[in-house]
Amino acid sequence: MHPHYGCRLNRYMFAELTQTTLTEVEYEIRQAILFFESRIDLLAVNFIPEPMQGKLMVELEYRIVTTNTRGNMVYPFYLQEGTLVDPALLPACEIQDG
Q: Which of 31, 66, 72, 97 has the most crowded Cβ, counting Cβ within 10 A?
């Protein structure tokens, strides 16, 4: 439900499959994980191109660092533990007067 969540891989839908394209795709993936998923360390991004099927498989190798963070927006955890969650992102019905 976050409009900026994820990465802009749709920009590469019809791009030629070159090393430059793969480097740019890897950068997009790494930035999205760094920004949106602080609970993991990304160890490697591997590509498995299947040009005859028009596919590019992406394999992520990662290590789980922690299972919960103060910025977690998973219901119901952010109600008690989400001290870094922006109240403007919460539905109005869930904001309680303190």
A: 72
